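Input/output pair, single chain:
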Amino acid sequence: MPVMSDIELHQLAERLGERLRAGRDRVATAESCTGGWIAKAMTGVAGSSDWFDSGMVAYSYEAKQALLGVRPQTLETQGAVSRETVLEMVSGALVNSGASVAVAVTGIAGPGGGSADKPVGTVWIGWKRRGGYTHAEVFHFDGDRDAVRRQTVTCALQGLEALL
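Output:
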């Protein structure tokens, strides 16, 4: 995936905001590996208070449990970087917000922390619409920590745009 510039990310967030406003939707984010970058990209758009509800950065296991309702059993058996965890994160974002749609991300941005079955660049993204559509997908991004995070933000926003 080509890495988007700051300008391209801003334009993507603007388009997403227009779609959210047109559909009278509000969005929430649940972020781990991106550390709030998805929320930053969206709230960088003037007027985002019309469609951005909340953003939760849950980096530790404890935060994922407390803020998003991720079950300890899920983290113990599947790990933080898994389909099961990201689905619980995105569901928790909706439960704990007034949003109608949400996105969640969890992954290994590097440079360390990877393993044979979950190498650096492995990222799970989940999208959910309240009362309906839920989808999770795994990505394997290349590059350094910044590149992995930037690609994650891009895919998260593109997935929200497709959901709408």
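The mean pLDDT is 97. Helices lie at 6-22, 37-43, 61-68, 72-78, 83-95, 145-163.
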